Amino acid sequence: MGAAAHIHSAEDARRLAKRRLPWMVFDYIDGAAGNETGAARNAAALDAATLAPRILRDVSDRSLAVDLFGATAERPFGIAPMGMCNLSAPGADLMLARLAARYRVPHGVSTVASTPMERIIEVAEGHAWFQLYFSGDGQGTFKLVERARAAGYQTLVMTVDVPEVGRRPRELRHGFTMPFSIGPRQFVDFALHPRWSLGQLAAGKPQMANFAMPGFDFDRTESRARATWDTLARLREMWPGTLVVKGVLDPRDAVALKAAGVDGIQVSSHGARQLQSAPSPFHALPTIRAAVGAGFPLFYDSGLRSGEDVLKVLTAGADFAFFGRSLQFAIAAGGEAGLHQLWDVFSAELSSAMAQTGVTSIAQV
Length: 365
Prior knowledge:
Pfam families: FMN_dh
CATH architecture: Alpha-Beta Barrel
CATH class: Alpha Beta
CATH topology: TIM Barrel
InterPro entries: Aldolase_TIM (IPR013785), Alpha-hydoxy_acid_DH_FMN (IPR012133), FMN-dep_DH (IPR000262), FMN_HAD (IPR037396)
Protein name: Alpha-hydroxy-acid oxidizing protein
Number of strands: 10
Binding site for glyoxylate: 28, 133, 168, 270, 273
Distance between the termini: 38 Å
CATH superfamily: Aldolase class I
Keywords: Flavoprotein, FMN, Oxidoreductase
């Protein structure tokens, strides 16, 4: 029996991934800022939320499809942008892209993806959103915007919650850097995980692929603190497609973003990877929904671990949700089969929760 068959929950995927990944890589994916109380706060907020069961309703015919910017997505959840996904397994970016194409959901393509943005959107059959980091003086940033437009991206996601890269002690203890800096500690770590190491050796060292060509430089540790509302205005002016701003937790910022002409907002704490003391996005979600009003596109990520969690955030005011690190763990645990297994788990959990609560479509939530 393959490893994928043993994945019945997000925690199963995490447990199996922890066995297979080098400690440095697992802690890069799994870690959060500070002593990780922010991540615990996210989980506790979702765990404490309840769903009200309803009875004696015909819920035999249920649909998980949802409208997303005028198109139909087969699920009300997609793939959050994650950097260096190919660390979880060679080819992980394209596994996610194929999943996005199959279910017609957005694949968030990170600025620091380990596969070029052009290749990902091709494999995703257009179901890809490009996630943008502003860094330095912005010169390279706006080059990436033009490149994403030329590649055919219709939706741009500006991430605004990383003015400085968060301090994640688990990464720091391992000496995690991109590109890798290999010393005695990392060598021992890789040697003790030969299956991962041999696979990576055969595929070639993962790199930040969007910066592998001349004229595109990126320093992961470079300050991103110079982005302002003027930066957003310039981006709005030059981007003709859909513009989403990700990393919003304050309703005042949400109102200002709506007034600035963005097309959607993603409520997120970056998986609690940036500011340990940030509030739970789940608690911020209803206040932001109230501030921007009904009908304005509102998305959610951070801490989702099940289909029931998706139903909770939809009930609290989100229109769509995004899974992150759990998908990487599924790939690390069982490859592409593991990814599809966990996706099916999330789908089944959501469908079952809808039946229990008496709804047959996402529009009824």
